[in-house]
Design goal:
The chain is mainly β. Helix content is 0%, strand content 49%. The protein has no helices and 5 strands. The chain has a 5-stranded antiparallel beta sheet with strand order 1-2-3-4-5, with no helix packed on it. The model has no long low-confidence stretch (mean pLDDT 93).
Length: 74
């Protein structure tokens, strides 16, 4: 999916809005939060039309997605 992210690092937790230009969420914005800790970036975002998550957690049928990315050591 292609899109544009707008970040708000001054918020707590930091916020990100992702506008998608293709794929199933085309022309929709999903609201999320993110954190960067060392070499790890954690995102939690809601399905289109859902409220921004308040914490980095998900549960069944919550409409939230949690992604943890860690830089691989060379």
């Amino acid at each position: 999916t292609l899109g544009k992210d707008t970040v708000y690092p001054d918020k707590s937790p930091k916020e990100v809005d992702s506008y998608y230009i293709n794929g199933p969420a085309r022309e929709k914005t999903v609201k999320g939060i993110y954190k960067i800790e060392g070499d790890t970036v954690t995102y939690c975002h809601a399905d289109p039309g859902k409220d921004r998550p308040k914490e980095f957690a998900t549960k069944a049928d919550s409409g939230l997605t949690l992604i943890v990315l860690k830089k691989q050591k060379e």
